[in-house]
Specification:
Blueprint (H helix, E strand, L loop, with lengths): L1 H20 L5 H4 L3 H9 L15 H8 L19 H8 L4 H9 L15 H14 L2
Helix pairs in contact: 4-7, 6-7
Length: 136
């Protein structure tokens, strides 16, 4: 009986961490070292994508805010609704980063809301661009 209680508590902790994990922003990730920003700005155009105002790329922002629920462009809450550009265009007419930002700002059931206080418009655009470029 004690073991069942421990297992149940562990499962609840994992679920709670997964649900709230999308909303948390660690201070370490919010402000990258100045050398990282300087390096990214001075890199040639063929290198990594330009960082956002926070100094993070769309990929880094996606991993920070979205990857918990959308690993590899999938969807852990509603598996049929992947982040595939083709599927999003067919299903919801999502074809540009601005469309993804609209969903982030006013999502449907099962998805956390990411307002401008949590993710700036610039960062949200970076995430949208990354999704469309990465998950065809």
């Amino acid at each position: 009986m004690h073991r069942r209680l421990v297992v149940t508590m562990a499962i609840l902790a994992l679920i709670t961490g997964g649900v709230t994990g999308c909303k948390k922003k660690s201070e370490e990730q919010a402000q990258p070292p100045q050398s990282a920003v300087t390096t990214a700005k001075s890199a040639p155009a063929t290198a990594q994508p330009a960082p956002s105002a926070t100094g993070l790329t769309g990929e880094q922002l996606f991993k920070q805010h979205c990857a918990v629920c959308h690993p590899n462009g999938g969807n852990t809450i509603t598996p049929a609704k992947t982040l595939s550009a083709k599927a999003m265009a067919d299903r919801s007419k999502i074809t540009k980063p601005e469309d993804i930002v609209k969903i982030m700002r006013n999502p449907g059931p099962g998805m956390n809301k990411f307002d401008e206080g949590m993710i700036s418009n610039d960062d949200a655009q970076k995430i949208g661009q990354y999704i469309l470029a990465t998950f065809p």
